[in-house]
Amino acid sequence: MLIGLMTAAANLVVGVFVGLCGVAGFLLPMFYTTVLEMRVSQGLALSFSAFIVSGILGSWNFKKAGNLDVGFGFRLSIGSLAGAVLGVYLNRIIPEERVKVLLYLVVLLSGISILCRKDKKSDVQGKDSAVNAECLSEKQRSISIRNNLPLTFLLGFVTGAVCSLSGAGGPVLVMPLLVLLGIPVHTAVGVALFNSIFIGIPAAAGYLLPCDFLEILPILAIALIGHGVGVFYGSKNAARINQGLLKKGIAVFSIGIAVWKLVG
Q1: Is it the case that residue 219 has pLDDT exceeding 80?
Q2: Which of 37, 115, 181, 192 sits at a 20 to 30 Å CA gap from 254?
């Protein structure tokens, strides 16, 4: 009973944060393997199963709010699907700690880049042209990554492999990189949640294979329900958050978690 309550609470809280800003899912593997002392394969199987639920519910709500580019998401996810299969395989032959160091270095650099990028604001009318030029530049970067199929596929493949290998889920790495490449933050969260479905399916299947399914089924059901409720609530209210504040919050959160994991 205690394990069930702890699992429900952890998935509910993490689900809310995933729905709001797309990150925090990577806390679930840590919860399963440290707090509940499960085997790594069990923890990753439960986590990626939850990421599929969060991806479906979260991206659905972001789509209804107009914050999901489905076409770009599909193109990105083609690469992620292939990368996730590779990541599950690599998990069995590469020391996990080495991959996690790489993951959190990327998260750290992405967070710093997002935080340091400041939107210019005009104090006088003469600065309006500079502001418009920067807005146009950001729009052009966004269009460039969305229409560049090889780059989109490569980004999806690499992030899919790293995320499925390390248990990060997807959005914690994909979302900051999309923002860095010029995608608006709410759209980046929506695409990252959508993309996590295609990372989660092969990863969950791969990590469930060595597990006793009947043994893990009760805790899996509790986890999916708690996570689903949290993500649905968070994603329904995500559009109400100020975009600039959300961007800074995501950057600080990414930097803090990356430093904590790297130091640890």
Answers
A1: yes
A2: 37
